[in-house]
Amino acid sequence: AQSMGVNRSTLVTALENLAAAGMIEGRHGGGTYVCGSGWHALAHGALPNWEEAIEEGWYYPNLPEVQQINRAEFQPGIIRLGTGELAPELMPQKAFNDILHALSSRSRTLNYLEPQGSLELRQALSVYLQASGIQASPDSILIVSGSLQALHLISVGLLPRGSAVLLEKPSYLYSIHAFQSAGLKMSGIPMDAEGLHIPRLEDAVQNNTNKDSISLLYTIPSFHNPTGSVMSDSRREELLATARNTGISLLEDAAYTDLWLDEPPPPSLKARDKEGRVLHMGTLSKAVSPGLRLGWLVGPEPVIRRLADIKMQTDYGTSSLAQEAAALWFADGYHEQHMDRLRPELRRRRDLMLDLLQRDFGEFAEWSVPAGGFYIWLRFTVDPLSIRELFHACLENHVLIHPGYLYDRLDAEHIRLSYAYASPDEMEHGLHLLAQAVKKLMA
Ligand code: PMP
């Protein structure tokens, strides 16, 4: 107290006030402890209570089911019916070996790269984005370590704390955690067959007690996670018009856009954006490789520079090797070749899953028919069926499913299925076990 220039009586009064507020407690002969904290900050020499201390950090923990999924995915013999990534055999193994071979004879910088990421990669991305109608100069692109990082950077570097983010209900699980953990409020907007429901969006804006506090609308217009739906062309136009009228900016997540199976989705929101209202994020994770940890964010240059500065302070940039590989991937035509090969295989797996559902699930469920991406959003039409119990029953049988309540806490009737990971044999066996588990719970 002396070194801080605070006299003893001030300190005693402060401690009394904290004790009266129930924030600290004195332990006889054992010093003073901060209540409910594993850190025992005021005790001399005490070891933190680690079990309690891990509750203190501000980042939201995963639900127990997600933690179980994240562990179980690596157990041998598990059938992954919900996993949001390509099976290893669908990944471009040979192309990456060729790319790494080509890179092995190049001289390279082993230093940190510039804050926005490798210029060579941003130039290649600029050309790639141009092909889908997005005008993005290299200066308006930030390379990120997977697009989830773009959500984090935006949450902490761009959005006022306490402001509101609108998003589809349900939505991508970790976007919800990123926004929540950054102290943002969220408002879920329902969807219909054409995407975000515009009147409900307008209601959400009108009914917000503090309209100015809405900062951004986060949307996944093409092959949505978890519903698989595509926002129609006219809905995209309506959304942009509503954004203009209400002054809301948009964050478009294009993670699944290249994974169309029947026909390409309508042009992106960013491709239609004449005024610079749309931030656009993409990733190699879904169509190519999630392990590479490579994504990008396109936006107005001041935004990109600000977020690049935070990225520098966060991780000094995405791995330069991953960036070099990605630059060749786009510049040398590997991407288109891979997509041409991947689409028929993914289409076969989607059609197989739909056939199997038709065969075994018709009496107790209904589902969407996705035109691309990975996901089938399956709704159980029987009542009551506990999705939590179903999840655990499946796990006991070594089958992993993703409960709908991971994507919307109030959802009680959906699961997310994915046709991207399980092999055709596993899919058949896994869905059979799932149907059996449902029937057992219904009985
Ligand atoms: N957006 C969506 C909609 C996703 O589903 C995912 C991955 N599940 C991501 C972003 C983030 O992926 P990554 O960080 O690997 O790019």
From TrEMBL:
It comes from Paenibacillus xylanivorans. GO terms for molecular function: DNA binding; DNA-binding transcription factor activity; pyridoxal phosphate binding; transaminase activity. The lineage of its organism: Bacteria, Bacillati, Bacillota, Bacilli, Bacillales. InterPro entries: Aminotransferase_I/II_large, HTH_trans_reg/aminotransferase, PyrdxlP-dep_Trfase, PyrdxlP-dep_Trfase_major, PyrdxlP-dep_Trfase_small, Tscrpt_reg_HTH_GntR, WH-like_DNA-bd_sf, WH_DNA-bd_sf. Keywords: Aminotransferase, DNA-binding, Pyridoxal phosphate, Transcription, Transcription regulation, Transferase. In the C-terminal section; belongs to the class-I pyridoxal-phosphate-dependent aminotransferase family. This is GntR family transcriptional regulator. Its cofactor is pyridoxal 5'-phosphate.
